[in-house]
Amino acid sequence: MNDEARSLQREFFRIDEDVIDRVQHLKSRLMKYAETALETVFDHLIGNPDVAHYFEITDNITYLRAGMLAHCDELFSARFDEHYYEATEGMGERHAKLEFPAHVYTAAYSNMFARIVELAMADRRSFKTDDITALSRITHYDIELSMGAFYRHIMDKRAALSSDAQKIRHLVD
Ligand code: HEM
């Protein structure tokens, strides 16, 4: 997708200058909440039989915590530049190569978002409605990009496997 198409996409998600300024101003607070919120997300994942085995290993959590926080930093910087798109789509592709079901990722986003909002509202200087709207817009856009890349990777892999199967059909028929 070229820059113009991406810009139109952001416009459709209503990510405008106000949203970008707002998120950039809130970035240090958002990062603080994200660090705390991550622990709730890990607790939730450990309780899910589809993924628990991965989270029982401490080193995996350490590695993932760093990756997820680095992504939060990327998202809350709200630059929407080439680096951001590569990182976000690359993350979706990495996830697509694992054996976990798609909903663990969307649920992690949902839990992370809910916990960040809870923390922001309970803080001394609580978030305003526009702050939450801005956070919601960029988060939904991030989900669209990463999960879009996730499904694209799976579809491309299926198409490649099916094309290989066609090529060797005469050998097995
Ligand atoms: C808010 C949701 C999530 C975000 C932002 C996120 C972010 C990332 C990022 C940035 C990486 C790449 C790390 C790197 O290259 O160093 C990654 C890798 C990974 N993520 Fe996630 N993740 C999310 C949810 C999950 C969930 C729910 C799981 C549960 C199973 C998961 C499992 C993994 C694993 C196993 C890798 C390593 C893949 C590999 O090494 O090939 N992620 N994630």
UniProtKB/TrEMBL annotation:
CDD domains: globin_sensor. Coiled coil: none annotated. GO terms for molecular function: heme binding; oxygen binding. Residues 8-149 form the Globin-sensor domain. This is Globin-sensor domain-containing protein. It comes from Maricaulis maris (strain MCS10).
